[in-house]
Amino acid sequence: MKSIPKLIRRFLAILLLSIILLFFLNIIILITLSLQQTPGASAWTTAMETGAALQKQDTGDGYILAEEAALELEREHVWGILIDNRTHKVSWHTEHLPEDIPLEYSLSDIASLTRGYLMDYPTFPGESADGLVVLGYPKDRYWKHMYPNWDYDFIANLPKYMLNVLIVNGGLIFLIYFIANMKLLRSVKPIAEGIQKLPTKEPVCVKEKGLLSELAANINQTSEILEFQNYQLKKKETARANWIAGVSHDIRTPLSMVMGYAGQLENSSRLTADERQKVSVILQQSERMRNLINDLNLASKLEYDMQPIHCTQENAVAIARQVVVDFINIDVDGRYPIEWVTEPQVTVCPVNVDKELLKRAVSNLIQNCINHNEDGCTVYVSVHKDCAAQNLPQSSGFVKSEDSGLQDYYVLRVEDDGRGMSADELKRLNDTPHYMMCDSEISKQRHGLGLLIVRKIAQSHGGSIVMSQSVYGGLCVEIRLPAYYLE
After folding, report:
1. Deepest of 9, 172, 177, 371, by most Cβ within 10 A of its Cβ?
2. Are strands 63-65 and 79-84 parallel, antiparallel or unpaired?
3. Residue 129's closest CA among 78, 72, 86?
4. Phi and psi angles of residue 327, each rounded to the nearest 5 degrees, phi first
5. Residues linked to residue 136 through DSSP beta bridges, in sequence order
6. In angstroms, rounded to a whole number, what is the distance separating the alpha carbons of residues 461 and 483?
7. Kindly report the CA angle at 362 between 360 and 366, in degrees rounded to 5?
């Protein structure tokens, strides 16, 4: 399955991105906190500035600290002393000097306080003209590392050490994350496989264990429901097909008797002309009922794949021309002339079809033109080749060969110059299902079985039909069939 590795890659990518973002975020937070904790200048810098600002008075007795430096020390609660170079005694100090601060120092004391603390106060020395200035900060203000000592090789190799540590840490994080999620991924895989099998109508049984056991149980229940629904649907379709076949069979026998007796009465000399005319109408309507029963049977068989289809390589031009000739021969009064408008150079259009079914489809289209134009019309029939399969609407039912890329196909077009249909009527005819295909709103299904049979015949051969307005003013119906080439 492609989805599981993709899911793993997504998890790892999210983890890596999270680590990188957290790393930079922590650095930013650390820098921000450091700046907030030390908003002023460095303590070492302050000590050096204090030493420079401490000047001996003109009278030569005592020292005076510049006002700006004194305010800075007072604001930071810092005390300061000046240790004389010669006597090692405190020759100057700030006000509020803590009582425990000595006023005389040895060299070792001076060395200790410059490095670290004096009476637990963190101290920072600064150079003055007459001695050493020492600033003492509050005890909880600074922490000082008194014995800094680093090996040179360690400092030189520190970047390499840090890189190795980061790589090892990253590997450990990935390993821990992967192991922690393996159980989840093992639970996801069978569930994903089960979901992918649901549209195929195959029985699905996912083991109900692991972290997603409840979801697995729901998938199993869904599979059982779909399987039961498919069984009921097939049972319903079989019952409908059997009912149609049974009713058609039961109607044929009495209908044959009606047509037989009506035929005898039509030729009887005992009937008046008006009575013979009524008998003729009975014969015509009986013939129409018989054709309707045949159409109903054929539509039912095509719908439920019960009609055997024997496909051979045929010439679509020859089949269409033969149907046209048959209709021309029966149009005695000439009310429905048929024109063959196929280009002269189009003589062979090979298709893999059941010849009789294709003839039936073309006949239905021509008969449809006749049935819907009582005042007469001209029917135009043509066959041509087209390579625009990619422009077909998805609802047309056209099936394109996956092996040949762009599928060539042949178009059998039947159109007329009759009353035609409006754009709304065409849309309704294309979008509204036939009553055989719909269990609700049957009263709204207006078109007959003829177009349904044409559509099912085209789809059973991997083709489609497209209905539109004709350039002659009437209705245009195209049967599109994939081209068939012998290797």
Report:
1. 177
2. unpaired
3. 86
4. -70, -35
5. 79, 123
6. 11
7. 115
Largest CA distance in the chain: 165
Q: Which residue positions in the chain have pLDDT lower than 50?
A: 1, 389-405, 436-447
3-class DSSP state for residue 294? helix
pLDDT at residue 339, rounded to an integer: 92
**Token reading at 239:** 């019952």
Q: What is the DSSP letter of 442?
A: G
Nearest Cα to 356, choosing from 379, 383, 323? 323
Question: CA 110, CA 414: separation in Å to the nearest integer?
Answer: 114
| Residue 7, pLDDT score | 64
For residue 341, the Cα-to-chain-centroid distance in whole angstroms is: 46
What stretches of 214-340 adopt beta strand conformation (E)? 312-315, 338-340
| E strand or H helix that includes residue 325 | helix 316-330
The total number of residues written for the chain in this structure? 487
3-class secondary structure, 60: coil
Q: In what order do the strands lie in the sheet with 409-416?
A: 338-340, 379-386, 409-416, 475-482, 464-469
Predicted local distance difference test score (pLDDT) of residue 391: 45
CA distance linking residue 465 with residue 324, whole number of Å: 19
Which residue is it, tokens 């021969």?
329
Helix axes 355-371, 449-460, angle to 10 degrees: 150
* Cα radius of gyration rounded to whole Å, the chain: 50
Q: Which two tokens stand for residue 35?
A: 């700046």
